[in-house]
């Protein structure tokens, strides 16, 4: 009987139909989804820190309002994604705990510092750009609640990407010093952005099975290539140089050739040894402790309401 269930499941997936929370699914499929979606949710929540660092120092009221709204959107994305894991039977408290003690990962990209305001623009342009490349195909992922969450998230991400690009365009039209700030930020964020897509396919243990289950719709290297192809013309228009001497158009392939990121650095960051890993996790722990009274008050209120005492 288990065989029939598994066969029917794969049939549904192969027919490009969605798997819904009450459908039978293999344990490995459920585990992989909880892993990937939780990691994605944690990335949104930790990802609030690098840009949050600049909210109090934004150069104008307009830039401050925009940045506040973007960072709030990221909190929202984290919440929808945690809700998607709950449909798989995960408990949000448990996932939060695993993030706080370093047992679950979040994206490597958020372990790099934001040194100037140009970093805010470059995060919008490159980091949100990479996020969109990776996430648009996830709107067609086989698990229904994840696919549906991705539709709204992608709409907001493309708005974020445009605000980053517009910020950079404005800075590039400014002084020499501002242009140098943008170039410096691009130099620092380019390679980490390429690493967001994960290890090369031949070093990616999860890709093959995730493709068969149609959780992932493209491999890590396919999406990285797509990102490079999309970004090079944007860099030219902006007037910045991407820091890769091997980057050039390959007419035969119809794609840009590009150099390899430093994969040792990537694994170091993933293992917790990046420039800001300790700071990011410590900050999240502090925020969690400082928010304890809010959780207690909300739980007390919910209990009171359940007993009908608020009326
Ligand atoms: N960082 O076998 P694979 C955002 C881990 S966008 C850290 O290839 P998989 C928006 C991987 O987990 C960022 N760890 O794994 C935003 C696995 O370890 P595990 C979030 C990484 O899952 C913008 C191991 O390496 N986006 O937040 C990374 O098939 C601006 C082997 O790798 C998503 O999460 C990495 N870069 O493919 C917010 C998208 N790459 O778990 C604020 C959804 C790999 O076995 C500001 N996720 N690892 O212990 C995915 O598409 C996939 O999970 C991949 C990795 C492509 C990231």
From TrEMBL:
Q: Name one GO molecular function term.
A: phenylacetyl-CoA 1,2-epoxidase activity
- GO CC, any one term: cytosol
GO BP annotations of the record are:
phenylacetate catabolic process
PANTHER family reported in the protein's UniProt record: 1,2-PHENYLACETYL-COA EPOXIDASE, SUBUNIT A, PHENYLACETIC ACID DEGRADATION PROTEIN PAA
The protein here is known as Phenylacetate-CoA oxygenase subunit PaaA
Provenance organism: Longimycelium tulufanense
Q: Which gene encodes it?
A: paaA
């Amino acid at each position: 009987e288990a065989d029939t269930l598994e066969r029917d499941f794969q049939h549904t997936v192969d027919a490009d139909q969605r798997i819904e929370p009450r459908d039978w699914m293999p344990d490995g499929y459920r585990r992989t989804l909880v892993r990937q979606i939780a990691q994605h949710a944690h990335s949104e929540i930790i990802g609030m820190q690098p840009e949050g660092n600049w909210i109090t120092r934004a150069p104008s009221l307009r830039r401050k309002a925009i940045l506040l709204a973007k960072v709030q959107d990221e909190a929202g994305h984290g919440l929808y994604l945690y809700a998607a894991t709950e449909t798989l039977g995960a408990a949000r408290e448990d996932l939060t705990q695993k993030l706080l003690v370093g047992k679950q990962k979040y994206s490597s990209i958020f372990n790099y510092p934001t040194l100037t305001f140009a970093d805010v623009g470059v995060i919008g342009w490159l980091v949100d750009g990479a996020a969109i490349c990776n996430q648009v195909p996830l709107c067609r992922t086989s698990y229904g609640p994840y696919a549906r969450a991705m539709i709204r998230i992608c709409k907001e991400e493309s708005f974020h990407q445009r605000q980053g690009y517009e910020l950079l365009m404005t800075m590039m039209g400014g002084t020499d010093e501002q242009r140098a700030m943008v170039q410096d930020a691009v130099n620092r964020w380019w390679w980490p952005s390429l690493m967001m897509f994960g290890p090369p396919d031949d070093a990616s243990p999860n890709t093959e099975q995730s493709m068969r289950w149609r959780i992932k719709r493209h491999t890590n290297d396919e999406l990285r290539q797509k990102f490079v192809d999309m970004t090079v013309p944007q860099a030219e228009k902006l007037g910045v140089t991407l820091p890769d001497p091997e980057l050039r158009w390959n007419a035969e392939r119809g794609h840009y050739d590009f150099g390899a990121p430093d994969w040792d650095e990537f694994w170091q960051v993933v293992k917790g040894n990046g420039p800001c890993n300790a700071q990011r996790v410590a900050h999240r722990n502090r925020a969690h402790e400082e928010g304890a009274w809010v959780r207690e008050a909300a739980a007390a209120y919910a209990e009171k309401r359940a007993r009908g005492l608020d009326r």
